[in-house]
Amino acid sequence: MNKHKAFGFGLVAACTSLCSASFAASLTEQYPVRDHVQLSDGTLVSMPFHVSGNLTTAFLSIINSKQSAKFVANSDFEPIEIECDGKGTNQSIGVLYFQDITSSPVGPYAETVNTIAVKRKSAPALELPCLPVHASNQEKMTYLLSAQQLMAQANATNMQQGLPSDYAMYNQDLELNSRLAIRAGIEIWGYPKSLADLNYRVSEHYVDLQVSNIPGYTPIIELSYLRKVGMQTPLYSVGDNVLPQRLQPSSDKHPQLSGVLSSESGWVQPFIGYFWAGPSNSKTAKALRKTEFYPVAVVEYTNVTGTALPLYTK
Hints:
Blueprint: E1 4-9, E2 12-18, H1 27-30, E3 35-38, E4 44-47, E5 49-64, H2 65-69, E6 77-79, E7 83-84, E8 87-88, E9 91-103, E10 109-120, H3 137-160, E11 167-176, H4 179-189, E12 193-202, E13 206-213, E14 219-226, E15 231-242, E16 256-270, E17 273-277, H5 283-290, E18 297-308
């Protein structure tokens, strides 16, 4: 099977492998609901956690590796650093997600998810090719997409054994506009989630997004990008991501989450638009500013279905 590589999906934000959508049967059939989790307010949440959405977009960037390390609150992992001639370049990989979820066990919500590419400290360095410090945006885009394929290949053995990956994405912070979705994310998995105001417009050719913290409405993110200017491809992704240790809801759970994402229509393209990390003191805004995040590539999924599985217990 011909495989490509791209990043995954807010709730299942992951290092993911990409293949033909025809490979994917209905996720509700593959992963039927088998249990329910009761939240502290009495809400019952079906598990696995199935979602569907109008849009999920991943913005890919080359970021500052040393600064990224300050935002990885998990002692087992460290940022993946790009090396040239055996020396670190202080460059790593960051991905910011935006998604509009229209249906989930806790209702509709919108969110952003800031993530950092990480490796398990006990694992060997990921053999990424050299990326010149002054590479063009086109070179960076090609590099970032290729890096995802290398991460998938490196994780193949662990995935086949049902074990957490050695190379994945670390969920640094999530901003949501739903209190119930925040409660579920924190209590079930331990996601670092905050309440925010998300204003967005999805049109035929543009997506506009403004995110502000609550209270205060200080800007966190403002962005706008041109759609449908790249390569169109169906998507089916499987992978896992790293959760912060300090928010783990249970000490017997491994801090990595497996998930699946499916979309019959996706776009892989250069970032053409406007991006600004605002003056907010939110964890997302601070990390984006400090790591010098600026998108060079976009992977957009439309009419998305996904499922988040229980945490690993091995």
